[in-house]
Amino acid sequence: MSQSGRCYCGAVHYTFDAAPVLNLQCHCRECQYISGGNPNVVLAVPEAAFRYTSGTPQAFRRSDLEKPATREFCATCGTHLVTRSPGAPGLVIVKRGTMDDPSAFGNPQVAIFTKDSQPWHQIADGVRAFDGRPG
Ligand SMILES: [Zn+2]
Ligand SMILES: [Zn+2]
Fold this sequence. Notes:
The chain is mainly beta. It has a single domain, classed as Metal Binding Protein, Guanine Nucleotide Exchange Factor, Chain A (Beta Complex). The protein has one helix and eleven strands, in the order βββαββββββββ. It has one helix at residues 29-35; strands at residues 3-6, 13-16, 22-26, 40-46, 50-54, 58-61, 70-73, 80-84, 91-95, 110-112, 128-129. It binds zinc ion (2 copies). One zinc ion is lined by residues 26, 28, 30-31, 40, 113. One zinc ion is lined by residues 7-9, 11-12, 74, 76-77, 79. InterPro entries: CENP-V/GFA (IPR006913), Mss4-like_sf (IPR011057). Belongs to the Gfa family. Keywords: Lyase, Metal-binding, Zinc. It holds the Pfam family GFA.
């Protein structure tokens, strides 16, 4: 079943039609900037299954990192929609809060980079937690 999503203002829409290969929350310091302070809750889907259906996002890559992720966001309202990471080749990492149904696919299955967690971060019962990236 295909899923769709959009930015806050509605200028950029996307869809994907594959089951996620990863369903996780990331506690790393970088994700705290992106999320506003909490873990970043994301799904990773095959690049081939993902496409924008209206609007064109702007892309941002930090120039001071050796292997920066590419972050795609709406140039009008600033909503960050997806990330493409050299650490996750062939995948598009979708921010669940931008999906039309953020509850699709249930709870995150793992929590990663918990070494960077803040005291207020929550991990649901039964979710496996990893200090860093799972091996
Ligand atoms: Zn927008
Ligand atoms: Zn992260």
